[in-house]
Structures are given as structure tokens and as C-alpha cells.
Amino acid sequence: KRKHRMDLLPDQLVRKSIKHGFCFNILCIGETGIGKSALMSSLFNTNFDNSPSTHFLSSVRLRTQTYELQESNVLLKLTIVKTLGFGDQVNKADSYQPIVDYVDAQFEAYLEEELKVIRSLFSYHDTRIHVCLYFISPTGRSLKTIDLLTMRNLDSKVNIIPVIGKADSISKTELQEFKKKIMSELVSNGIRIYQFPTDDETVSGINTMTNGYLPFAVVGSMEKVKVGNKMVRARQYPWGIVKVENESHCDTIKLRRMLCTNMEDLREKTRAYYESYRCCRLEKLGCRDIGPENKSISLQEVVEAKRLEFCLEKEEKEKKIKQQFMQKVNKKAAVLEEAEQQANTHKQEIMSYEEQLRDLGLFSLK
Length: 366
Ligand code: GTP
Known about the structure:
The chain is α/β, with parallel strands linked by helices and 366 residues long. The protein has two domains: 5-284, P-loop containing nucleotide triphosphate hydrolases (Rossmann fold, 3-Layer(aba) Sandwich); 290-366. It has helices at 9-20, 36-43, 97-115, 145-154, 172-188, 201-211, 252-261, 263-284, 299-360, and strands at residues 22-29, 61-71, 74-84, 131-136, 160-164, 216-217, 224-227, 230-237, 240-243. The strands form two sheets. The protein has a six-stranded mixed sheet, sandwiched between helices. Strands 7-8-9 form a three-stranded antiparallel sheet, with no helix packed on it. β7 (224-227) and β8 form a beta hairpin. The protein is elongated, with a radius of gyration of 35 Å. Bound molecules: guanosine-5'-triphosphate (GTP). It is found in: Cytoplasm, Cytoskeleton. This is Septin.
């Protein structure tokens, strides 16, 4: 019996997305030298370009780098965006603004593509941020104002996963206390961080456990060290070795596992953040699904209303320009008239002077 064509659909979709690959965009926020690049290289087991940034930038900037990674036969287009100069300015009150602007700009670019008459969303390079790793300094004390401000301004736009950077510099007992403190501060400040989903029963067990590890205590390294007869990613100290991929040394491997298993959920939640951005933007442009008397408004009506508004505005502008032009012309005419009158007066004066001279019989000017 011939197979129903619809049965081929899922395979076809899987093959298509494998062939075209998919993109995943990570934003790393953290002060200069907190270990953002080392963690990225450790997570994807690839040494990405890493040039240290200066401490003397007058404002926070963002650096974007895109890589194509091939894992078995799946192509991953990975974009890593990291902050430069975060926390280095004397006045840190506005440090979050360039980051918020960046996140919004990616939504805006997507919206523009979506609103084009001829859209190519399938081949469009989607740069919307799927996850934001927020690096907390391993002080063992509390979150800084800049941390609270930045996370609060981003939590409605992006999935935030807080991580404690350079976690090898803090002792085991202090780390547990620090983690608890951070979580309670986030709750008391009303900051929403990403929660690994627990509604799907295949992952609910592991995700509930993982939510309990937040914020992840991460360690990164650009180097591999020989342990036994194996080369492992690690940090070597005079007293021993911290292995990046050892779960009893740090949570880096947990973070990697969770990012991989929840990639689709992160992408889906990003779409939800985008939806609310889109909704706000379109509302500002005057588009509404429901009219004043709870009447549904069609897109055609909105476009027609906008067209009318535009025509009226254009007419008004033209009228104003015409008025301004006429005013200028009238002013010029008045000036010319005055000049002509003056010229006439002068002519008459000359004529009477000539007459006087002639009467005196002195000489003629002609
Ligand atoms: P900028 O781009 O300059 O802001 O730095 P970054 O945040 O990307 O930090 P990077 O990964 O370049 O690391 C800065 C320094 O910290 C390097 O000397 C790293 O070796 C070191 N480092 C990175 N990760 C860790 C870590 O987990 N623990 C420790 N102790 N040091 C680390």
C-alpha cells in the first residue's frame, strides 16, 4: 500500500532544518575579565577568537561574533554577543541602556522583515537573543546595584540565566551561601530569571533539579591540560587542577547540558518576548485588533485609516508651505514697492533741482 504523503512531513522538516541549520544567539553580560570568552569556548569546546578588552571605554559596547559549528550533521549558526566595558564607568546608572537598545534593535529588525511585502523569514538571519548569561562576580557577598538594574531592565525581553563567574575563586561552603543569597535577592527585587520548564514529564525531573542549581557556578578555560593520558579542559594551579568538565568542581557542564536540552524552549520563550515587543510597537503605530466599541478592526481598515491620516497630514503640510511662500512673496513685493517709491522721490528731487539751476541760468545738467 502506498504511504500517505503526509507521513513524510516530519522527516522532511527534520531534514530541512538539518540542512539549513538553525541559529542560536547568546548574550554574555559581565564585567571586563570575568571569564565570558573562556566560558563560551568551554561550553562549545572550541577556542573562539578572544582579544581582551580595555577597561577605559567611556560607555558600554557590544561585540557580536557569528560562528558556524557542525555537530554530527547538524549545522549550528551560533552568535555570541558580549559586553565590552561593562561596569568600568564611574557612573554606572546607564550601563544597561546600550544592552536594552541592542536587544530591542534585534526585535525591530525582525519586525521590519516580517512587515515587508516580500518576506524571506526562512532565510533571514534571526539575531534575536535566545539566552542571556549574566555573570555575577564571585564576591561571596551580594548582588551589586548594576546587576539588579541590568537584570530588571532585561527580564521582560530575554531569558536570563545568572551564572557566578570564576567560581573556582570561592570556597565550597561560601558558594552555597552565596547562591542562596543571590536567589533571595532576585526574588525580593522582583527579577524574573529563566526557569527550566518542568511541565514536560520527560525532562521535569532533571529540570526541577537543575533549577535548584541556579545560579550556575561556572569555570572556564582556554587551555587543555594532560590528566593521566587524556587532555582535558582545565585550569592549573600550584595546588591542583580545576577541571571544567568535572561536575564536582563546577557547574559548567550542567549549564552546557541544560542549554542543549532546552534550546527549543529558549527559542520558544524568545518568540513570546518578541510577540509582546511586536504588540507594543504595532499598538504605537495605531494598529488594534479590537476597536472602541469592542468591534473587530480588519488590517485593511487600519491601513485605510493610516492612508487617510497620511493624506490629511500631507495636505496640511502643503497648505502651510503655500502660506509661507505667499507670505514671503508679499513681503518681497512690499520691499520692492517701497524701493520704487524711494526711487520716484529721488527722481522728483533731481528734477526740481535741475529746474532751480535752469531758472538761475547757471548751467544745464543735460
Ligand atoms: P573581556 O572580554 O576582556 O571583558 O574578558 P572576558 O570576560 O571575556 O574574560 P576572559 O575569558 O578573556 O578571561 C579573562 C581572564 O580571566 C583570563 O586570564 C582567563 O584565563 C581568566 N579566567 C577566565 N575564566 C576563568 C575562571 O573560570 N576562573 C579563573 N580563576 N579565571 C578565569
